[in-house]
Amino acid sequence: MIGRQFFDRDVHEVAVELIGAAFLVDGVGGKIVEVEAYHHEDPAAHGYRGRTERNATMFGPPGHAYVYRSYGIHWCVNFVCEPEGVADAVLIRALEPTHKLSLMRRRRGVEDERALCSGPGRLCQALAITGAHDGLALDLSFFQVAATTEKPEVVRGPRVGISRATDLPWRYGLAGSRYLSRTLRPA
DNA sequence: CACAGGATATACT
DNA sequence: GTATATCCTGTGA
């Protein structure tokens, strides 16, 4: 179990170390295989133009979950990082399912293991993450984030689904994983 | 395999 | 009104 101090660092450092870490909500989840870093000076980041009602959590203390609605349909979850007050966060994009697969299949309505958590909206549905979790601390017993002992090989490339700052290679993935939301080509 | 289109909350023009 | 840190389904190459 990693504590709050894990997130008291630069978003890119945290992003790399999250690859291979376990992420469970109420005992359901898996191994993190894909994330994206969002920095406050980055035009594609929600916090870039200042605080709003929706992104207020990003401006709060590190080690908390920022959950927002995407395209009016899906939920997406971020981990807020240091420094506090500037809105730096890591978007969790994909997991390799390891815990309670049957429950995730029921929630997602699909059988294919690779479709359970391969995408930010998908993994929130599989782990039952909603706006109710926005602002919650990641060291509560409800959320479980545990770092790996091994040192996984991390690939870095351009981010997905944005039109601004597309040249920044701030998407991080576990090399060779079958559970990425889409193939990750090194930038 | 590669698209196009729909669902629809929130923020910006 | 238009765009978006998405996903699913349908069509066609």
In short:
The chain is α+β, with helices and mostly antiparallel strands.
Q: Describe it for me?
A:
The protein is α+β, with helices and mostly antiparallel strands and 187 residues long. Helices cover 13% and strands 27% of the residues. Strands 1, 2, 3, 4, 5, 6, 7 and 8 form an eight-stranded antiparallel β-sheet that branches. Strand 4 and strand 5 form a beta hairpin. The radius of gyration is 15 Å and the shape is globular. The model has no long low-confidence stretch (mean pLDDT 94). The chain binds a DNA duplex (13 and 13 nucleotides) through strand 3, strand 4 and helix 3.
* Poorly predicted sequence stretches spanning 5 or more consecutive residues: none
- The SSE order reads HEEEEEHHEEE
Tally of helical runs = 3
Give a short account of the largest sheet: 8 strands, antiparallel
State the helical fraction. 10-25%
Radius of gyration: 15 Å
The rounded distance between the terminal residues' Cα atoms is 32 Å
**Strand residue percentage:** 25-35%
Overall residue-averaged pLDDT value: 94
How does the helix and strand content classify structurally? alpha+beta
- DSSP, total strands: 8
Q: Could you say which overall geometry the principal axes of the C-alpha atoms support?
A: globular
